[in-house]
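Example record

The entry below shows one chain as it appears in the dataset: sequence first, then structure tokens.
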Amino acid sequence: MQCVLASLTVKNLCKQRSRFVISRFQNRNIIQLERPSSTYQFTTNDPLPDLRSKIPDYDFIIAGGGLVGTILAVALVKTKRLENKRVLVLETANKTFSKEPWIRETDNEEFNDFSNRVFAISPGSRSILEKFGIWQHVWRFQDVTSLQVWDGMSDANISFNNPDFTAPVSCIVESPVLTYAISKVLEEHQQNIQIEYGSFVKTCNIPTVSNDSEPATVELKDGRSFSTKLLIGADGYGSRVRTAINSQYVSFDYDRTAVVATLQLTEPTENNVAWQRFLPTGGPIALLPLSKSFSSLVWSTTNNKAKELMGMSSDEFVDAVNSAFWETHPRSIVVQRASDLLSSIGMSTKGANMLPPSVGEVQEGSRATFPLGFGHSSYYVNRRCVLIGDAAHRIHPLAGQGLNLGIGDIDTLQRLVDKSVGLGADYGFLSVLQEYETERQRQNLAIQTGVDLLHRLYSTQFPPVVALRTLGLSFVNSSDMLKKFIMSQAAA
């Protein structure tokens, strides 16, 4: 959710680091054509049939029918020059879970069936979803008009909002609601998009350098095989398609766990502010608005603390959440002196008189956890194969950027495929796909390294580091011009 804060770090604090990482990937351009062809087999060594003379079964095969995969399918067929292309989506699940519009019996009746899996959609991502006709079917969401972020070790804070507090800086959408919106558009294009549920990929094969006009092929565990002009891996951070192209994958665990839950507030409020507090216990806690009376919790913490939270009774859990937002933590002399220095020059660490709402209940059955980690594929593309979303990059959720990066991948890939078709080029050629890789790695690596730095910066209680981040955050918060610039970057 806190995409603005992440952009602060990305755009202003770690440009040098991201440039270094990016250059390491881009310096390999001299050997791009040496990317290996491969047949990655999960359970068998039997070779695939020779399909070099066969007309591809599909123009596009998307491995992974989650949000990113299905949004891409919509984006392709909603493009004028691609509207007659054939798209196959392979999804391992037997069905997708969506939430249809819920009709209230009275105007005063409050929703109480919120999902615990939510996404923060940036204004730029929202515009992309609108362009492809998806957002028009999103029947429930909550605009966020202000972001309030503060440091639990010093109370240094930063506030982001548009000047009139009306234009949203982001919006919160439940995963099942977004899935429903996508499904409505998919229904309109059933003649071009085929979805195979319960389909497990066994083998992927990409052509060799000398035969790059051949199609890519996919064989399923049930024995069926398909060929395509372009295979798209949208199958998550454990991507089998990524393994098939023999791409190195830089990854590590943060040794942290995110606890999510749906919370009911003690009383209804306007509830259009997103709150995040960095705690000395291992990570940030965030409260994201869902409606006047409900908010979504995302609490990143240590693995042991997460187990403790999951084992609590409902009342104990609610008390722990309220304490995390309100409790005062001991402050070192170094941090206190930094705060005093800021006060002496008129830059107090105490923010505006805005306080987070109090939590009254946790929705039964809504508590869940998921592990946190980092991952990045050294290649996004190979011959007739491309990676998007978490298959290419995995990011810490403290900035709420995961889905937004995936939507950015979709927009870039759709645009470049459309461009190549318009020029009469083969969109499956490596030379065409490398333009997508270059553009997206520049964006994604910058965001990933920035969020990683932000996580590490706020995961320490070392007083000098706390003092420095206090000074930095307070300085940014005091500059309207700098905050406007950050807001414009975060909205992209």
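Notes for this example: Residues 1-33, 38-53 have pLDDT under 50 and may be disordered. DSSP finds 13 helices and 21 strands in the chain.
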